[in-house]
Write a structure and sequence with these properties.
This protein is an alpha/beta fold and about 270 residues long. It is built from twelve helices and eight strands. The chain has one domain: Rossmann fold (3-Layer(aba) Sandwich), CATH 3.40.50.1820. Strands 1-2-4-3-5-6-7-8 form an eight-stranded mixed β-sheet, sandwiched between helices. α3 packs across α4 and α6 crosses α7. The longest helix is centred in the first third of the chain and has 15 residues. It is globular and about 45 Å long.
């Protein structure tokens, strides 16, 4: 089911499936949309859990931001997630964040979102002002992540890199890149470089008592695996990062069957 809700930053699009006592909220990455989680929302997971995915402001079917300089930041995206959870009265919440969505998920919980567990994919938690960025990311591949204007080549290249290769990109996912309000990329990364802009995400994952699962593509072209493995996670599920071999930045899309099996196991463990 798809619906729109009114929020302080405009209309936000939501996809929803399933039911159950546990709500699982998926937050997509930079220049993507909720469609990227269709292999989860349309899976057997919906037989056990209440699954939801949102389009961030300036993405997918959601409105562009009312105030771009204010609204297109990780901190403001996180506030929006908190607002959506409150409006929908979601309880027993597990939040799933991919790439930028993972940074948003961490920030939302740091702001007070009541989540009993978290799943991260393609998200290396860094310090304020994106401290440790050079250690956490493959910087040589990060150029387009903050580019305001995309031409057709940029759109195709970005879609290919984020999804795991051209053979995995659908027209819907390519159109999600094309639709994105491009200034959101520029503002988001610029604001994140301000040390006062948000929480110390590295410190957060090293101190949060609730379980965190890291479901990570081993061939992610953006994230450095050794950085994820080197963090002192406080409560890392199964005690280690769960790597998907021969899989890129979006394991839930490229390797959906294995991802969904691990997601279900995690949800059963934290229920």
């Amino acid at each position: 089911m798809n619906k729109m809700i009114e929020t302080s930053v405009g209309k936000i699009a939501i996809s929803e499936s399933g039911s159950g006592s546990t709500s699982v909220l998926f937050v997509h990455g930079n220049s993507s949309s909720k469609a990227v989680f269709s292999k989860q929302l349309n899976s057997s997971l919906a037989e056990k859990y209440h699954l939801l995915a949102i389009d961030l402001p300036g993405h997918g079917n959601s409105d562009n931001a009312n105030n771009p300089q204010q609204d297109y930041t990780i901190s403001s995206y996180a506030k929006l997630v908190c607002e959506v959870v409150e409006k929908l009265k979601l309880s027993s919440l597990v939040i799933v964040g991919w790439s930028l969505g993972g940074h948003i998920a961490i920030e939302a919980v740091a702001q007070g979102l009541d989540a009993k567990a978290m799943i991260l994919s393609g998200t290396p938690p860094v310090g304020p002002g994106f401290d440790h960025m050079a250690e956490a990311f493959h910087m040589e591949n990060m150029g387009d992540t903050s580019k305001a204007e995309f031409d057709e080549d940029d759109i195709n290249n970005f879609a290919d890199a984020t999804i795991g290769g051209a053979e995995f990109v659908t027209e819907e996912l390519r159109q999600a890149v094309a639709r994105t309000d491009g200034i959101s990329r520029q503002i988001m990364l610029g604001a994140s470089a301000d040390p006062a802009s948000g929480s110390d995400q590295k410190e957060f994952v090293e101190s949060w008592n609730n379980p965190i699962a890291v479901l990570q593509g081993a061939d992610d072209v953006f994230v450095q695996s050794r950085y994820l493995e080197g963090l002192n996670w406080k409560n890392l599920w199964r005690g280690k990062v769960q790597f998907f071999e021969n899989t890129g930045h979006a394991p839930f899309w490229q390797n959906a069957e294995q991802y969904n099996e691990l997601l279900n196991s995690f949800l059963e463990d934290v229920a």
